[in-house]
Amino acid sequence: MIETRGLRKSFRSRAGRETKTVEAVRGVDLQVAEGEIFGFLGPNGAGKTTTLRMLATLIEPDGGEATIAGADLRKDPAEVRRRIGYVAQGGSTWDESTAREELVLHARMYGIGKAEAHRRAARALDAFQLSEYADRKCKTYSGGQRRRVEIALGIIHEPKIVFLDEPTTGLDPQSRAHMWDEIRRLRTEGMTVFITTHYLDEADALCDRIAIMDHGEVVAEGTPADLKREISGDVVLLGLDVAATPQAAQLLDSEPYVNKLETADEGGLRLYVDEGATAIPQILRRVDNAGLALSSIELHRPSLDDVFLTKTGRSLRES
Amino acid sequence: MKLARDTWLIFQRQLQLLLRNPVWVFVGVFQPVMYLLLFAPLLKPALNAPSQAEAYKIFVPGLLVLLAIFGGLFQGFGLIAELRAGVIERSRVTPVSRLALLLGRSLRDVVSLIVQAVIITLLALLFDLRVFIGDLLLAYLMLALIALMTSAVSYGVALKVKSEDALAPLMNTVAQPVLLLSGILLPLTFAPGWLQGIADWNPFSWAVDGTRALFAGNLGDDKVWQGLSIIAVLAAAGVVWAARQFARSVR
User: Fold this and answer.
1) Which of A80, A267, B210, B217 sits a CA distance of 20 to 30 A from A207?
2) Chain A closest CA to B83's CA: distance in Å?
3) Does A95 touch chain B (CB under 8 A)?
4) Does A71 touch chain B (CB under 8 A)?
5) Structure pTM?
6) What is the number of structural domains in chain A?
7) A28 & A160 share domain
């Protein structure tokens, strides 16, 4: 449904007298299959939005190619526009208009006739549970309602693919769960959904496949389960104070069941082991014999954050 | 035909939003009305005009051109608000004509200007201004072309600078010399030679001369077709340039 080869984009930015070229996206290859929810995961500034805006014909790539829903991005952007929907991160509704007016106008910008545009608007309002507020101005809506209007706008012309840029950012937990249901519903209706997010739990819960992006490059791609499996074994977190940490690290580093060991700046250790259940008793015995005091011990099944950490050397939360 | 359809679509939407808040049309007309009521009475003695009506024939056309220039140049502010709300980006992912995105908006501005011009003209009639309806309609055409040009340029600049803070001083800096060099408040016949020489390069000065000729009933005056042609060419150039800005990448 989407296939990209070597998609690139750099921006020139000026700081004082110097011009700097920032390579926002450096050669992205992606393949997204029909009917899947594909997640683009990465910290802010990783190049997710830039890639999305290139795929949505809003900015022209510097290099590379892409085929989207069968249309060539470089040669026929007009055809791509007809086949895709795009929902921007920062909103797209006008305060003084009503949801119905926005939907009708948007449908008509796709060349749909007046009567049909009204029918579709009514149907979308119904499907997104907005009928009650349909004729109120957008400025009176809650964040969640407004986001639903925006998604409804993005799919009013029944596109094959819809791009959602951080669809749940800024929503309260309840609206967020509601939005996940809406996104899953789009897939049931046969749409391919491409979302960006910087929430790990969102990518994990919602996406069939994900690509992790960092510094303009895709550093990992696969199903959430596959990616987690790549990180073999479990993670054991030991709570230690800063002073005791180096000694404990030295002690445990040579243990055969510890595959990898990392020290946290604020004290404590992160141990990668094959199996947590058998490793923990041995760790406890070793630490206890050395007379060190543990403040906590935690067993972690690998998460996407661990995937991100192994691929980039940083935690997604701190970047 | 797609262009006409899309332009009509955008025009309708913009007009609908304007009518929801029509107070802006009257706010826009407030300043020229003040000039008409509080400044124009000084003109008969100042211009040595034989009557108040003659003075108005000189002053009102200039005032209308002023209204068209300023009304158009400041339309960009509304567009920056739309940019910020994401409305422009949302339009740009659809296959809608980029020229229509501009024309629909600029034509709304033209309509709002003509409404304001009619209000000013009607008020001036109370002060004994008399003008033939045919000449008046041609003068309105001139005003419409001016507003089309200035609003298109304003939209184009707004898409480039993307911030109100940059747009306001920029437009003021452009508008001020244009205003002074077009003989809007006082005809440049009073100006020294060098000033007239500079003013000859100001297209709005030609527009003001043409509009004055029309109000004076001199339809055959060369200034009429000269003014109309100059402004028509510039309006077309402004529209083409601004439509390109809509087609280019903007956020």
Assistant:
1) A80
2) 9
3) yes
4) no
5) 0.83
6) 2
7) yes
